[in-house]
Amino acid sequence: MPGLQVRKVLITGANGQLGHELVRATIASGHEVVATSHETLDITDKSAVDAVITESRPDVVIHAAAWTAVDACESDPEKALLVNGTATKYIADAAHTVGAHVVYISTDYVFDGSKASAYDEGDATNPQSVYGSSKLAGERALGETDAIVRISWVCGFYGANMVKTILRLAEQPQLKFVDDQIGNPTFADDAAEMIVRLAIEKRPGTWHVTNQGEVSWYEFAREVLIAGGFDADKVAPIKTHELQPPRPAKRPFNSVLNNASLKNAGIALLPDFREPLARLVSQIQRNERG
């Protein structure tokens, strides 16, 4: 396998929801990790990026650092483009200088959400938000032999996410979630395992990596409550246009990502999202009980 010569992996955004799991999965795979975070590397500082990558000389860079505050990006498009687009070029250029393969973590937001079926890796991009546009700029900063991994609706043990929000609201008499946005809930630990595999094998191209099973946010909220032992019938469906206050950034109505590249490569897909959901809810509840 081409990945046999990989010894050292540099991971940006190592303190993030996905980053924590990427570090764990890379170490578990027997590879050396150089973990950088916002505190240790300002990815918008080209000289700092050059220095860290030149000094560490990784074989692979997994670039997970990003500004993912979707609504905040709308009010500061320059910052969004700098962090998610320009900084990605800094990372890629520095990596290529030392001969490293780059894996860039992207998003379903690069699509406009209007397709009637799941999005394939080669479908035309058409972002409808500043965040989506900035992440697409990052995709375009990569080299031909690098990899783009698009993920969606990410949840995990670290950081804020929808599973934690729903569990926090679980005792309320009613919860309202939209039923006109659909996607693949994806769990950080599962996604990290696959991303690390693709990285170590230095597989180029674009990959959609999600857990299987598509749901609306309304249906997902019900599944979270069921996993947590709560009454799912307290969730009421609403439409996106009924959200109060309305969200600044436009969300894709269809965020379902077909994992066609994995299928074509003969790689087993991640399990149905309900499996890691049960695991995560149990982990969160155990942690809360101390």
From TrEMBL:
InterPro entries: dTDP_dehydrorham_reduct (IPR005913), NAD(P)-bd_dom_sf (IPR036291), RmlD-like-bd (IPR029903). Residues 8-284 form the RmlD-like substrate binding domain. Pfam families: RmlD_sub_bind (PF04321). This is Unannotated protein.
